[in-house]
User: Fold this.
Amino acid sequence: METFEQKFNDCSDKIERIFNITSIASKVIAPDLTILKVNNALVQLLGFTEQELLGSRILDYACPEYKAHWHNLQKELWENQVKEFVIEVCLIKKDKSLVWVKVTTVLFNEDGNTYGYSVLDDFTWRKNFEQAELELKDALTKSQSAEIKLQLNEQRLTRVLETMAEGVAIVDNSGKTVYANPKARQILGYTTGDNKNKHYASPAGRNLRVDGSALPFNEHPITIMMVNRKAVFEREIAVQSHNHERKYISINAAPLIDDTGELIGGIGTFMDITAKRKLSLLKDEFITIASHELNTPITTLQGSLQLLKRIKNTSSHPKMSLLIDQANKSMNFLTVLIADLLQASRMNNGQPTLRYTHFKLSALINGCCSYIRLNEEYNLITEGDTELAVDADADRIDQVLTNFISNAIKYAPQSKDIRIVIEDLGNDIKVSVIDAGSGIAADKVPHLFEKYYGINIEGEQSSGLGLGLYLSSEIVKRHNGTIGVESVLNQGSSFWFTLPKLLENY
Assistant:
């Protein structure tokens, strides 16, 4: 019994003649939709060989969104024996590119068998033209508002640049400034409208290296960027204005290259790092001072211990008591320094945890600074409402009071009476330590509670690490209190702090 394929091969040569004379991609399919014959035009259209196409289904080459509809048309063609169907579909070629075709399929009978004959008319050019036409119409529509949008974008960019906390400047290929935002003008010392045509290497002040020496032209970050045509990052220089104010700035710079590869200028961003650099210098100075402060008591302690070792078997030696006192004094000084350093570190890391207890402030005041009271050189006088009590960390508040009183003795030694006043402010309790010393200069008062402020980087320094008042400030703040100082030259100073008031007192 002949197979379907054998019967097809015995058909008339009419199909062969059609295939041979047409340049339109054509195929013959069986009722199961497999391809029985293809012409060379279809091979060229899809890029697959004849052997690859035979036995496959044309639906296998369709883009997914067309498969279901095409299959339904094929099914209706064969089951209902409709005359023909036409569909426009997108096919995927062997090279993964797309081709648009109009497929017309009809049925024909040969020797009692039914076959499908399809022609695929390529209209990709029309589809591309339609797409190009749509894109052109869209471009024309967009171009009508392009100028308005450009203006809006320029306005937005200007607003962003004008409000940036970082300086931004643009220079042309000769190095002249064509734009500088307000922050850049501030950093570089330009006045309003004064930035045009300024050369980047000639700001209102002088360009310096960070060590203070003159900055050569070829070392300027913008010069390096312009010469190498590569971006530079975080290059630090100093700028000194005519009023001798020196600023340290960090510069990032990138070249501006046009479509032909020519350098047309550069853009630079500036960050004022003066405060950061001064802090770095302050830390370096702190290490120097800390080393000095620690070295002095250690040397004294070592000397005392060496002498004690020599006379240890002579208990009646006249220097025995003095050496022991010196050793204890040096040890106490070391203990305080190390405790301050450790506590400052804990403060930076969010520690320490406060241990709240309920106590009268007057009792705490009477117990603190016992070594001062025993010395009897200074009078610690408690005044005010002695019945007021607080919930607080007694050890920490004692530390604040001790620091205030010790500072009064250190910096106002002529003030033999030191008053400690407790006041009821309604919602808070205020404690003030008042001396009658020489007072503090007004320009120094705002900085007294800053870390390391006891160290003066111009060369003058007070003893200690400059941590006492800083630690006191942090302790009071962690108690939700406030801290401050009032001072008048030649009249004395009042260091004070407040703590939240209790609803009930002892």
About this structure: Confidence is low (pLDDT under 50) at residues 455-461. The CA atoms of residues 356 and 392 lie 4 Å apart. The first strand starts at residue 25 and ends at 29.
